[in-house]
Amino acid sequence: MVIYTELGIRQVINAWGPMTIIGSALVRPEVVTAMAEAAAWHVDVIELQRAAGRRLAELIGVEGCYIAGGCAAGLAIATAAMMTDGDAAKVARLPETTGMRNEVVMQRSHRNPYDHAFTQVGGRIVEIGHAWQAFDWELADAIGPQTAAVVFVYSQRTMNLSLSLAETVAIAHAHNVPVIVDAAAEVPPAGNLRDLKTTGADVVVISGGKGLRGPQNSALVLCTEAMVEACIPHAAPLHSHGRSMKTTKEDMIGLVKAVEIYQGLDHDLITQRWQAEAASVVAAVAGIDGIDGAPGYAGYSDKIPVADLVIEPRVLGRDAADLAAALAAGDPSIRVAQDQQSLTINPQFLQTGEMDAVIARLLELLTA
Ligand SMILES: *Cc1c(COP(=O)(O)O)cnc(C)c1O
Fold first, then answer.
1. Does the beta carbon of 155 lie inside 6 Å of ligand 1?
2. Please, where in the chain does CATH 3.40.640.10 lie?
3. HSE (CB half, 13 Å, CA atoms) of 203?
4. Staple 64 to which of 225, 246, 310, 348, CB 3.0 to 4.6 Å?
5. pLDDT tens digits, residue range 93-129?
């Protein structure tokens, strides 16, 4: 593609996941077309925020939706809205939170690299529990007059640990404290668009640029209409602390289009295609000594079938890190998930024909 090759940039084949560092999911062509159309007019961006949000809320079946510039931005803005309670003077003071409720309670097992979303707006994280467990009484004890919100990270790594989302919502609400859910990568399943909100969680944030294949810097902040109004003062086009978290009119239109398309997809058929592609990788490496392929699920979602390849370095003569580096070093560069023992080949974001290219390169490296 000329636009990249002119800059000396290689193509990346994404057999990894919705990773921002490789451009996450490819934006659907129909979404790009809608964004180009949106670029041809000026509009009042706040009016569009309200109208596009209402359209998204209707499509999804929730009361309200604010559109943020990515899930991390949505988490930051929702937290800020809960700390400031609609008080314009407090909004203007952030991230200075003296005199405000500024504590965000979270299970230690939910801590992750996106936690800056809570602290960048002046929130202070109050941890409960230890690395893999927290108890209901710990949550109840941690909530106090300074608590602005309880955060629940709904990801494959955390959703099945103790203290479920339902228990978290029940305890927080018994103390009149709202719950913010980070569900950035948990679509698919399509049902999560609506179901996570029906747990009673006050705010559910889902990335627009992961499974939905909308603009990468967009996110659904599913909430109430009142919460949408509470979020608006916190980011561009206004001039508060969140000026740097800008969502453009093109992003907003693109996200509406992406959700419209996503809801019309045949999700079972897509899952079957992923399963078949993952199985083709397992079949291709069968019989190669030192590599043990098996079907599995992506680390971030048990709704995404993948191929797990366990590497035996003493037999194969190279370890998983070596092999991943060799895949990445080629042109096109092939990116896969990798841990100490294994590689994971993920079909979710592969384009037609790309799995064949991944398999061919893998076999070339393995037989070299
Ligand atoms: C990807 C991710 C985010 C950040 O989402 P962006 O839309 O890239 O801002 C936050 N939390 C979790 C769990 C994620 O997987």
1. yes
2. 42-263
3. 33
4. 225
5. 999 999 999 999 999 999 999 999 999 999 999 999 9
Span from the CA of 53 to the centroid of ligand 1 (angstroms): 20
Q: Is ligand 1 within 6 A of the CB of residue 49? A: no
What's the CATH number of domain 42-263, 3.40.640.10, 2.40.280.10, 3.40.50.300, 3.90.120.10?
3.40.640.10
Q: Class for domain 2-21+266-366, per CATH?
A: alpha beta
Coil vs helix vs strand at 154: coil
Residue whose CA is closest, atom 13 of ligand 1? 184
Cα distances (Å, whole numbers) of residue 22 to 15, 19, 325? 11, 6, 15
- Evaluate whether 42 touches 241 at the Cβ level (below 8 Å): no
Ligand 1, from 207, 210, 245: best to mutate by most atoms within 8 Å of Cβ? 207
| pLDDT, average across residues 80-101 | 96
**Closest approach atom of ligand 1 to CA 24:** 8
Does residue 217 line the site of ligand 1, with CB under 6 A? no
Q: State the span(s) of the chain assigned CATH 3.90.1150.180.
A: 2-21+266-366
**Residue 368: predicted pLDDT:** 76
* Cβ 277 under 6 angstroms from ligand 1: no
Q: How confident is the model at residue 327 (pLDDT cuts 50, 70, 90)?
A: very high
Are the C-beta atoms of residues 206 and 197 closer than 8 Å to each other? no
pLDDT at 33: 98
Extract the tokens encoding 13: 């084949």
Ligand 1 centroid distance, CA of 364 (Å) = 34
Give pLDDT, residue 162. Answer: 85
Whether 316 contacts 290, CB under 8 Å: yes
pLDDT of residue 1: 84
